[in-house]
Amino acid sequence: MAENILEVRNLKKYFKTARGMLHAVDDVSFSIEKGHTLGVVGESGCGKTTTGRCILRLVEPTSGEIRFEGKDIMKLNRTELKEIRKDMQIIFQDPFSSLDPRYTINQTLSETLRINKIVTGKKAIEDRVLELMETVGLAERLINTYPHELDGGRRQRIGIARALAMEPKFIVCDEPVSALDVSIQAQILNLLEDLQEKLGLSYIFITHDLAVVNHFSDEIAVMYLGQIVEKAPTEELFDNPVHPYTRALLSAIPIPEVIEERPQILLKGEISSPIEPKDECRFAKRCMFACDKCREKNPALSEISPGHFVACARVGEV
Amino acid sequence: MKKDTEIRKDDIALELKNLRVKFVLERETVEAVNGIDITLKRGHTLGLAGETGAGKTTTALSLLRLVPHPGKVECDSLKVDGKDVLKMTSKELEKFRGSDLAMIFQDPMTSLNPVFTVGQQIADTIMLHNPTTKEDAMKQAEKMLELVGIPAVRAVEYPHQFSGGMKQRVVIAIALACNPGVLIADEPTTALDVTIQAQVLALMKKLRDERGMSMIMITHDLGIIADVCDEVAIMYAGRIVEYGTLKDVFNHTKHPYTEGLFNSLPNIRNRSERLKPIPGLMPDPSNLPKGCAFAPRCRYATEACRTARPADRMVSDTHMVACTAYDDPDFRIDRPEKD
Amino acid sequence: MSKKNETPELLVSRKYVRQSQIRIILHNLRKNKGAMIGLAIITLLVLVSCFADVLFDYDTEIAGLNISEKLIRPCKEHLFGTDDLGRDIFKRVLYGARYSLGVGFAATMIGMAIGVVFGAIAGYYCGLAEDIIMRLNDILSAVPSILMGIVIVSALGASTFNLMLAIGITSVPQFVRITRAAVLSVRNQEYVEALKATGMSEARIIAFHIIPNCMSPIIVQITLRIASAIIATSSLSFLGLGVPVPAPEWGSMLNLGRSYVRTASYLTIFPGIAILITVLAFNLLGDGLRDALDPKLRK
Questions:
Q1: Architecture of domain A4-87+168-310
Q2: How far is C124 from chain A (nearest CA, A)?
């Protein structure tokens, strides 16, 4: 097996709220091979974004172990963390709020380069800025434009360029295309794909769009209420979904084709509250197969075939 | 459109001819909609698809005569259920909105008033259009809630006590409260999660079929179009570039832009296939190119495309495409036809 | 020419000149008539204040006694008339602009410097620091500002500097509150997180990315606060706690003319009008700036 660039074990992040502990991320474990992409799918409030932020320690995890190239990130002090963040970067969902409106492309990128002493010297910095812009497909003439003068796709390219400025090995992509139009979305997805190939990057790709994650990832983890309910290589997950939630999710994707009759699994109800969840299967309330067994204990992930993990009490029965 | 002649006049729920909308600003004029014809048959659903800035929402607002200042709307004819909307006084318009033509907006979070209970909000709409007592209207409101799958007891709750999907159901209940003949839904599920989206779409389809309502579904998601629509209009830069039945547009695609949209979408059945995005960006609506607005991004574009605006061309009884390239009888786009 | 040595790449950023933010704001401001009038008046007053010593001789014309010419009604020679000590009121009103503007501006700057620092800390670091700062701020703003000014000036003695300090401190709570609110909205923007991810220190993020993005409300607040600081200066001077006599501060001129209100009302009318116009000018400019700086109204 190839080397893992990132290993996350028993990651937990609880937030204090007025009504009790909110279990945003609850005992999540996964690993990513070098040069591969893990897709994290789930609906709003399932903890996928918090997971991404925890890996970079932009949000302090409550407990757990995050190993990046073997080093435990949780144990690093400030300077060590600063050093390791050069290798780990993040791309945000909203290309409008992820850039400082008062900084031009040039200022945004050169500041990053200068502060982290990635290149030194005025000329070298400017050369590198232009090189980065070319890498992400931004025209040279845009160097002194402000974010508000650009469209969403171009802004997202600046965000990618800023992440690449640090010369990272690993990037957390937090819904990088969901705010963009389809034709622009495809441009950005292709760019991310090319960069992965060229620079050997590893990604965590967080999204709610299954069609995108199917296209983009080597392995997919489906999250529900702070926990991974199913994890498998992409093809396996799409061909052979086991968890009832995954099945409902897959059947809910709108497919842009003329199909006469399509069997759909319509879920009842909506995601319940992640505050102080009971020890039972968190999906049980919406699950059509739920039985007493599901309400007794929160099922753990178990391997049903090589690389395919499911957390469901009734695996094999339904 | 030619097909109109074959249909009896009262079968048409909504007819719009040559709609143009301009926003005259201090330094520039934004041409949001540039000549749109829509014919919606009773009981049918038309999908209006396109990207941000294509003019979808402006078109919808024009149908309700709600285009905000400084928009200037010009239109040859607009008839809903045989009524001439252009000749209505503002009093008649108020009555017309909601009872003949209702609209659902994109964001359920902001389209409900936070200080009234959802029951009151539905009842208000009912009382606005029907002379009933408050108690009666409240009872009807509860029925409407049950219709959209919310227990009637929740009528006394406030919007913040509902989740996003539930709020959108309430919005649907308000829109349907007065039994409109035509419903316009502007991206009704964009703010919702996929599983909730599936629920809401299923609900809308069910209500449409039960009530024989006509619907205009505005969305950027071609998957939703395939799911709920009978006819499709693909919009680009304020024009309809391709118009036809679902099969016409999806299986016998003619316009290069429509092809580009399909190629940009990840194929769920073939994941290794590389995406083929449309190069470039949507043109600036205050500075549209002289010829075909899509020509600068189109790989089939010729000199003729850049000089003259393409005419609407009927390729079959139901299928319209606005593309100059079809002047050449042998012209085909790369996307294969399906049955 | 040094340009010869530069490589073409280095010229790139200069070739595509960026649009100056100040120019955009000025363009928006120019459309607002009220703000332009306010700006014109303020410019005039600033010029008069700067050149007051060149225009008038302080010892003879402004502060000097000339009993033979006392209490002359407004006429050609004395546009606004003269006071009970025979001093020309027109000259004194013009000269007095430097006190009102000077104290108003300096006091607001003191208030802003303190307020922005604490407001930014309170907004960025939630928790204990925020609680302490905001509660102290509440206490400070619960004391009526004029009372606060009187207390500070009485304790430290009446002098121009103490006056500035007193008025400055009373304007701190406003700045703290406004800065904190602005910082709160900016700190949750994703770009702050992105900068953290690129290893930038928090001090640098606050100083170079958060505060500059909070400047709009602060600038507006400055113009509005100057207006109220001018009123406060005049009020305290009126009470004899401001700029010491015989300086022609507008408030103390009002006080001097008080006993002649019935017989020689021009002693109080003209300084009063001066205060009114100056405060109005700053308020007009403040309202105009608020619109010009609002990104939602741009384009």
A1: 3-Layer(aba) Sandwich (3.40)
A2: 15
Residue pair B174/B122 in contact (Cβ under 8 Å)? The answer is yes
Q: B204 — phi, psi (to 5°)?
A: -65, -40
Per-residue HEC secondary structure of B295-333 comes to HHHCCCCCHHHHHCCCCCEECCCCCEECCHHHHCCCCCC
ipTM value, please give it. 0.85
| R_g (Cα) of chain A, nearest Å | 21
Domain boundaries, chain A: 4-87+168-310
Does pLDDT of A256 surpass 70?
A: yes
Q: How far is CA B230 from the centre of its chain?
A: 13
**CA A144, CA C280: separation in Å to the nearest integer?**
39
For B245-279, write each residue's pLDDT tens digit: 999 999 999 999 999 999 999 888 887 788 898 98
3-state class (DSSP) for residue A20? strand
pTM of the model: 0.83
Which tokens in the block code for residue C139? 């206490």
Q: Between residues 198 and 227 of chain C, which touch chain A (CB distance below 8 Å)?
A: 198-200, 204, 209, 212-213
CB proximity under 8 Å: C 166-195 to A: 189-191, 193-195
B2 pLDDT band, cuts 50/70/90, is very low
* Pick from A183, A208, A214: CB nearest B271: A214
Report yes or no: B109 at the A interface, CB cutoff 8 Å: no
Residue A32, token pair as written in the block: 């990513």
CA A287 to chain CA centroid, Å, is 25
Residues in chain B: 339
Is the preceding peptide bond at A277 cis, omega within 30 degrees of 0? no
Tens of pLDDT along C36-62?
999 999 999 999 999 988 888 888 888
List the subunits that have 3+ CB pairs under 8 angstroms with A.
Answer: B, C
Within 13 A of A226's CA, how many CA atoms are on the CB side? 22
Of the candidates A183, A212, A266, the beta carbon closest to that of B261 is on: A183
What would you report as the CA-atom Rg of chain C, rounded to the nearest whole angstrom? 24
Give the tokens for residue B310: 């393409």
